[in-house]
Amino acid sequence: MYRIIERRMIVPNLHELTVEAPQVTESVRPGNFVIVRPDADGERIPLSVADWDAEAGTVTSIFLQVGASTSKLARRRPGDTIPTYAGPLGQETEIRKYGTVLCVGGCYGIGSVYPVARALREAGNTVIALLEARSSYLLYWQDKFRSVAERTLELTRDGSAGYKGHITRLPEILTLEKIAPDLIVANGCTLQMMLVSRVTKPLGIKTIVNMNPIMIDGTGMCGVCRLTVAGKTKFACVDGPDFDGHEVDWEEFLKRRKTYNPEEVHPLRKSGCASHF
Ligand code: FES
Q: What is the mean pLDDT of residues 157-181?
């Protein structure tokens, strides 16, 4: 059993979960995920790792409360135990010196892109963060980003913080802020990552996306996270979650995604995360 150290709602529907799991901290890297089960009957939930403390042996994730399993997890309290906390899983984000890297985070992805930003900074990159949400009250961890990023920018659809509008304003923001990234890393809902990839392709800026949101069981067994990347079939949970956003077949992905509309997109729409679907 694994002990919950902290579980709190940090913004509406988004929870921060810290679990005692020293076996994970021994080898965890940015981009990895863990599999969590809230109780013995619960489904497996793949959660991106958002932070860890190697000395304390604790791992932190941010999760969106969208269905029965994540609602169960959202009811867990500090001191409770959970039966499954397996990881680290997935391929790590490639960390090396690129030059200037823009880390884009939205929803749960603000959390998951944080360790990527930190590791890129430690590798000698100039890191700039762009945190996006529908409104300012859905942004979080700005102080953590300010500690690793040279600049932390905000983008809200209602203009209540930072730039106003959608992520499609990214090219304009890069011009206004005089940023010429050598790499963009985007973590967030699939629509955000698709749009980032679409607007950066004509600019020729390499863009890495993290396809964690399309996973269900995270084991390579259910097949739900299948996608085509550079003409080849890949599974986000085994071959990713990171992929080159310009090589993902987004059209095919969107077609397949429609199959899951009632189960997946509707709860996301209710949560406000995918209000633009
Ligand atoms: Fe089921 Fe990847 S999440 S195969």
A: 97
Of 100, 182, 108, 113, residue with least CA distance to 144: 113
Q: What distance in Å separates the CA atoms of residue 140 and residue 112, rounded to the nearest whole number? A: 12
Report CA Rg, the chain: 17
Which residue among 33, 45, 47, 224 is best mutated to probe the pocket of ligand 1, counting the most ligand atoms within 8 A of its Cβ? 224
User: Is the distance from CB of 69 to CB of 19 less than 8 angstroms?
Assistant: no
Here the tokens at position 6 are 């902290």
Separation of CA 222 and ligand 1 centre (Å):
5
Q: What is the rounded CA–CA span in Å between residue 87 and residue 46?
A: 10
Report how far residue 188's alpha carbon sits from residue 110's, in angstroms, rounded to the nearest whole number. Answer: 7
Look-up: residue for tokens 């190697």?
A: 54
Centre of ligand 1 to C-alpha 211, Å, is: 11
Q: Is the CB of 220 under 6 A from ligand 1?
A: yes
Has residue 107 got a pLDDT over 50?
Answer: yes
Quick one: which of 166, 44, 62, 161 has its CA closest to 114? 62
Mutate to test the pocket of ligand 1, among 211, 221, 229, 239 (most ligand atoms within 8 A of CB): 221
Q: Which domains does the chain have, with CATH numbers?
A: 2-89 (2.40.30.10), 100-257 (3.40.50.80)
Atom of ligand 1 nearest to the CA of 216: 3
Q: Ligand 1 in contact with 33 (CB < 6 A)?
A: no
Contacts of 43 (CB under 8 A, 6+ apart): 37, 68, 69, 217
User: At 130, phi and psi to the nearest 5?
Assistant: -125, 110
User: pTM for the whole thing?
Assistant: 0.91
The CA-to-CA distance between both ends of the chain, in Å, stands at 38
Model confidence at 160: pLDDT above 70:
yes
Q: Which atom of ligand 1 is nearest to the CA of 221?
A: 4
